Amino acid sequence: MREKWNSQAAGAAALLVSALFWATGYLFVKQALYSISPYYLLAVRFTAAGVILMVIFAGRLKKMNLGLLRGGIFMGIALFLEFLTYTLGLGQTSPSKASFIVAGYIIILPLVYFLIRRKLPKGQEIGAALLCMAGVALILAGSMDGLNGGDVLMGLCAVCYAFHIVLSAKYAREYDGPLLNIVQIMTTAVLSIILSLVADGAPAPLSLEQGKSILYLAVCATIIPYLLCLYGQKRVSTTTSGILLSFESVFATAMSIVVLHEHISLQFVAGGVLVIGAAVLSEWKFKNKKSGTL
User: Fold this and answer.
1) Which one-letter DSSP state was computed for residue 219?
2) Angle formed by the axes of helices 123-140 and 238-245, to 10°?
């Protein structure tokens, strides 16, 4: 029992660190979009991440099989659509507003889980998802100032994000995490390269500053968090994974408070308490007179 608890705790920690790294990506993507095409940014970011991963895990490539390849491609298609809508949307809306809308995936997650896994989530898990969304809404509602095209794209991103989480949770329990990560990231890279060539034509050389931003996005907002994410999703439930990853919005807001010296409001504290409460609720074991647990 203790070993199982330690495994779940390690998985939860990995997912929280993933959310922290992804939260930093909002600032770097927003900055990069001032001088780089969104399609070109996606192509270079994921190509760099894929090549680095293939070098690091070259010894595992011989373990690739058809099932893993198929699962990784499905994940990569969802990932590509997620980041395409995210990158395009972030060029038209603010990072804090974007993080709130994307966090809406937590509401969509139970439906997507049912569509893919053909299993109904427990009432406890649905309640935890709703509580989590209420917390995120409290934290970021102050930035909501009307709907625009970027917000619609972020809504589509939330749908793709939900599909990606469920697919990742499904395949992470069946196949090698690093290999899955290589396939999904290279799938996203290939799709991004094709789109970039069609939309932008021949790529232009990157400046030193642009290169630094993309290197950070490739390593710290792509390679590291996705490896940690797949590790975590092997060890905790799909719903709990979704809730822990939603801390990305909390971290993004907290960063703006630290970096931009924004005031910490009671609304932020209350929202953070609800999000943490949702994570606890999702894994809380209720006693049941008939079966002992729910």
Assistant:
1) I
2) 10
Q: Are 18 and 229 in contact (CB under 8 A)?
A: yes
Write down the pLDDT at residue 91: 81
Contacts of 64 (CB under 8 A, 6+ apart): 179, 183
Please indicate, yes or no, if residue 294 is contained in any of the structural domains. Answer: no
Alpha carbons 149 and 146: distance in angstroms, whole number: 10
Which residue from 8, 62, 36, 58 is spatially nearest to 233, judged by alpha carbons?
A: 8
pTM comes to 0.78
Residue 197 and residue 48: Cα distance in Å, rounded? 17
Which whole-number Å values give the CA distances from 277 to 28, 135, 136, in the listed order?
30, 9, 12
CA pair distance 104, 50, nearest whole angstrom: 28
Tokens of 280: 């606890």
* Neighbouring C-alpha atoms within 13 Å toward the C-beta of 170: 21
Q: Euclidean distance between the first and final Cα of the chain, in Å?
A: 18
Task: For residue 188, give its domain range.
Answer: 2-283
Number of structural domains, the chain?
Answer: 1
- What are the tens digits of pLDDT across the range 136-193? 777 666 555 556 788 889 889 989 999 998 999 889 889 998 999 999 999 999 999 9
Write a three-state SS string for 172-193.
Answer: HCCCCHHHHHHHHHHHHHHHHH
